[in-house]
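User: Design a sequence. Structure:
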C-alpha cells in the first residue's frame, strides 16, 4: 500500500497544487510586485519602489486610523464573543430540555451573509438611536463602533459556541466524578478541569474570531460604510476604498493589502503562541 501511495502521490497532488498556485501563490506574487508600482492596469505598471509604502504610513492615507479602529474592534470583539460563546456552551451542555433547539437558534445568524446582516442591524440600530437621540449610526464614530461590535457578536457567538460545546463534551466524565468525590464545587471544577482542558478549543476560537475581526469587510460596508468621514472604516474597507475609489492610488491600495496581510499573519501567530502555551497536556 505504501508503494502504491508513493507512486500516485504526485498525480493526486496535481489538482490541489494547481488550485493553490492559480488561486493564491501566483496572485500573491503578482500583488507583491504591483505594490511597488504605479498602475491602472497590470499591463501599464511602472516601478516606483517604496513610494507606495511610504504613503501608506502617512496620516493622509487613512491606513493608520483604520488600523487603530480595527484593533479596537478586535480587542473588544474577540473577548466578548469568546466569553459569551463559552458561557452559552457551558449552559447548553447541562442536559437542559430543548438544548438542540437552542443550539440551532444561536447558530442560525452565522448562516446569514454579512451584507444582509449589516443592513438588517443598520435598520434596527438606526431605529433605536433616532428614537433616543435623534441621530443615526453615521452621526458618531462611537455609535458605529458599538454597532459593529453588536453585529459581530450576534453573528459569531453561535458559531464559536458549537466549537466550545465540542471541546467541553470531549472532557472525560471520570474527571468530573473524581472532582465531585474530592468535594470540588462547580467553580473549582470549572477553574481546575474545564478551562484547562478546553484551552486547545480556546486557541481555535480566539484564532478564528481574531482573524475574522481583522478581515471584516462586508459587515462594515453595509452597517456604516466607514461613516462619518471614514472614522469607522476598518482595514479591509479602507483598502477597498483606496484601490477602487481613489484615482491613481491602485498601487497604494495594493501596498496597503500587502501590509495588511503581514499584520494579520503576525497577529495570528502571536495569538496562537500565547494561547497554546496555556494548553493542558
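Assistant: Done.
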Amino acid at each position: 500500500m505504501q508503494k502504491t501511495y508513493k507512486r500516485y502521490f504526485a498525480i493526486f497532488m496535481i489538482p490541489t497544487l494547481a488550485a493553490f498556485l492559480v488561486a493564491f501563490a501566483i496572485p500573491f506574487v503578482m500583488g507583491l510586485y504591483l505594490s511597488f508600482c504605479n498602475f491602472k492596469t497590470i499591463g501599464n505598471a511602472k516601478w516606483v519602489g517604496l513610494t507606495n509604502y511610504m504613503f501608506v504610513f502617512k496620516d493622509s492615507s487613512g491606513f493608520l486610523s483604520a488600523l487603530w479602529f480595527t484593533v479596537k474592534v478586535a480587542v473588544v470583539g474577540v473577548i466578548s464573543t469568546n466569553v459569551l460563546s463559552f458561557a452559552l456552551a457551558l449552559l447548553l451542555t447541562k442536559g437542559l430540555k430543548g438544548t438542540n433547539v437552542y443550539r440551532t437558534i444561536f447558530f442560525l445568524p452565522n448562516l446569514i451573509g454579512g451584507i444582509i446582516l449589516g443592513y438588517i442591524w443598520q435598520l434596527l440600530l438606526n431605529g433605536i438611536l433616532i428614537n433616543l437621540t435623534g441621530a443615526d449610526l453615521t452621526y458618531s464614530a462611537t455609535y458605529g463602533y458599538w454597532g459593529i461590535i453588536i453585529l459581530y457578536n450576534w453573528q459569531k457567538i453561535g458559531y464559536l459556541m458549537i466549537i466550545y460545546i465540542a471541546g467541553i463534551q470531549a472532557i472525560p466524565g471520570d474527571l468530573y466524578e473524581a472532582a465531585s468525590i474530592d468535594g470540588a464545587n462547580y467553580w473549582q471544577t470549572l477553574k481546575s478541569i474545564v478551562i484547562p482542558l478546553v484551552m486547545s478549543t480556546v486557541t481555535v476560537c480566539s484564532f478564528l474570531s481574531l482573524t475574522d475581526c481583522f478581515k471584516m469587510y462586508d459587515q462594515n460596508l453595509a452597517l456604516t460604510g466607514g461613516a462619518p468621514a471614514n472614522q469607522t472604516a476598518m482595514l479591509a474597507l479602507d483598502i477597498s476604498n483606496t484601490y477602487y475609489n481613489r484615482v491613481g492610488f491602485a498601487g497604494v491600495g495594493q501596498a496597503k493589502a500587502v501590509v495588511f496581510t503581514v499584520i494579520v499573519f503576525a497577529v495570528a501567530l502571536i495569538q496562537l503562541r500565547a494561547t497554546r502555551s496555556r494548553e493542558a497536556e
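The CA atoms of residues 18 and 27 lie 13 Å apart. The chain has a mean pLDDT of 90.
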